[in-house]
Design a protein that fits this description.
There is one protein chain. With 222 residues, the protein is an all-alpha fold. 81% of the residues lie in helices and 0% in strands. The protein has one domain. Its main location: membrane.
């Protein structure tokens, strides 16, 4: 119960900060619009977005959000040494990590909705025909990026030289989840069977759910 209470308090605290500052929200919206505009200008206004191209656009944009915003999610605790106070609260420290993952996933889901809206109604209608599977892919892909980004943010927060470590890890670690998510999304839009790529996405999420939880206490003490 103490860990659950701590999780709720951290989520509420960060949402209140976001409501006042709106920095992550503005970055999420800005990156979503920028990525779509850059793709459209590069490809030309008359180019039709096929499933593979639209899928790549969606998940590249999610990668931008993961690298630029989510990896800074622990930076909010720097002023006034807020992390020390959170660590002294009753409940495990892992509750802080899981609260940050939840918030990161919220931002990613908002970004996904924005990008899908900008991509075009045709592909969105195709996705709605298999809405449950489509949301599952979005959720699993977003969860993988959120887990990696939040863990990298925790590592950068506690390790010297984080200006080098954080961007490097944030660029390399999400590659498997981005590949699996993009392939799964394209297969769904093409009406193909969701098999190996979806299984890889689930496996990657499990690994990066267990790994940060196992190493989080160690990272905290570094």
């Amino acid at each position: 119960m103490a860990s659950m209470r701590k999780w709720v308090l951290v989520v509420v605290k960060d949402l209140q900060i976001e409501w006042r500052r709106k920095d992550f929200g503005a970055a999420t919206v800005g990156l979503g619009i920028m990525a779509v505009v850059v793709f459209r200008v590069t490809l030309g206004a008359t180019t039709r977005l096929g499933p593979a191209l639209a899928s790549a656009m969606l998940w590249i944009d999610c990668a931008y959000v993961g690298i630029i915003t989510i990896t800074r999610i622990y930076a909010r605790e720097v002023p006034e040494n807020a992390m020390l106070g959170l660590g002294l609260m009753p409940g495990g420290r892992i509750a802080i990590f899981l609260a940050k993952v939840f918030l990161a996933l919220m931002f990613l889901q908002c970004n996904q909705i924005l990008v899908l809206t900008l991509i075009g109604h045709g592909l969105l209608l195709q996705a709605l025909n298999r809405a449950v599977w489509f949301e599952l892919i979005l959720l699993l892909g977003g969860l993988g990026i959120a887990l990696v980004g939040t863990f990298v943010s925790a590592v950068g927060f506690n390790v010297a030289g984080d200006d080098v470590v954080t961007p490097l890890l944030a660029a390399l670690l999400p590659l498997p989840v981005l590949i699996c998510a993009a392939q799964s999304t394209a297969d769904l839009w093409l009406g193909k069977h969701l098999g190996l790529w979806l299984q890889g996405l689930i496996g990657y999420d499990v690994v990066f759910l267990v790994l940060p939880m196992a190493l989080h206490e160690f990272v905290w003490e570094v």
